[in-house]
Amino acid sequence: MPLESAVAFLAETARKSGADGWDLRAGASASEGVSVAGGRVDRLELRSDAGIGVRVFRDGRPGYASTGRLTRDAIGRMFRDAWDHTFLSDALRIDLPSPEEPSYRETGLYDPAVEALDLPRMEAFALELDRRVRSLSSEIAEIPELDAEKSVSETFFLNSNGVSFSRRRSSVGAGLGVVFERDGQTKMGVGQLHRRGPEALDAAYLADEAVARGSGLLGARPVEGGEWPVLLDRRVATRLVSLYASAFFALAVQKNQSRMAGKMGPAVASELFTLRDDPHRDGLFGSRAFDGEGVPTRGTTVLERGKLVSWLHNLESAAREGVRSTGNGSRGLSGPAGTSFNNLIVDAGATTRGEMLKLRPRMLLVTKLEGGTGCSALSGELSVGAQGFLVEGGEIVRPVDQITISGDGFRMLRDVVAVGDSYDDPFASRRVPDLLVSSLKVSG
């Protein structure tokens, strides 16, 4: 049955069940994509998915279930599974939200031009991108990844108190990975764009990005180990800050899974460092009027000039403390709610990249991380392979590789001595500028 009909049927089933309360989520998506290999179209992909799930409460105990089959029988069985689950779960004493006018109206989530973007146009773009990137360098060994994809999705939410909303989103993504080779050394360069509409199909930007990020590292070699000032490129800084973001989730603190426990009020980061959740910035991918539990979103400053001033709450963590949810609940079609940033924003500073390079006589500019398994938001451990450039006297001297940067992720935030004035991607839901850290351990 159509998704809207499935939502109506599940809601009616839940109303008749005698449950204390319930909420449901449903979603459908369709995507088309093309990949190129060896200068030819290698693969075409068409995918479509739909599903519906419910969280139901009986005597305060939640039950969860979902199904990808949108028939009356399947949805009925799914609800019974969720009901049976309530006999096995612990009580979760939360108050589901009631209807409330949101303070933000969602705009720019959907671009109708995506519907008109067909496979022949994406094929032509991918082949043009392949030709363009090959024309920029004679040191290309292979192009193992080159693709373009469009997607349109729709989400529905409804709960027993009458909160109801839906949202439609579109996106177009394109990317490539290029392997460069010189004197037996190989380096990978990546270019990626993800946008609401066809503006993501920018062959010139993607080709230039991949070539610059790959060929620029040819000839790299390690530096001597020790304590180094490290300038984290915007992309690297965004990734590292995101890895430690869960330490600021109230539920993690309450479960003794955060190093930030007991540190509300004092400075835990540099006074140059302000961290926010801002779900109301038009055009960003994380902007939304409601969170995953139907709570209206609102902006929350987590760190203000280095001081910890707020946790991020979902309904469960808010109920434990007797406060209001900050609108940071996250949920899939089934399973317990989690917590997440909507749009993670570190406020930009007033220092340009060129000015930052001159703040220390000698430093490392890290532009690429290799993995992230050595980083833990629970312990604060930071240990990750990196590549980048040696900088002396404010000038880039040579590329660097085969190094590991290590230390404590939370100490890293305290040791920020300069914050850049711009972001890498104006549309991403994670926005962190360049960060200059006074000292990190480097081993080569």
Concise overview:
The protein has 444 residues and is an alpha+beta fold.
Describe the structure.
This protein has a 6-stranded antiparallel sheet with strand order 3-2-1-4-5-6. It is of the alpha+beta class and 444 residues long. It has 2 domains: 213 residues, PmbA/TldD fold (2-Layer Sandwich), CATH 3.30.2290; 112 residues, no CATH class. A hairpin with a 4-residue loop joins strand 4 and strand 5. The protein has 9 helices and 19 strands. The model has no long low-confidence stretch (mean pLDDT 94).
Largest sheet: 6 strands, antiparallel
* Strand composition percent: 35-45%
Radius of gyration: 24 Å
Count of folded domains: 2
What's the number of helices? 9
Helicity level: 10-25%
CATH class term of the largest domain: Alpha Beta
Q: Low-confidence stretches at least 5 residues in length (pLDDT < 50)?
A: none
Q: If you average the pLDDT, what whole number results?
A: 94
What fold name stands as the CATH topology of the largest domain? Answer: PmbA/TldD fold
**CATH architecture heading of the largest domain:** 2-Layer Sandwich
Distance between the termini: 59 Å
Give, in spatial order, the strands making up the sheet with the most strands.
3-2-1-4-5-6
The secondary structure category is alpha+beta
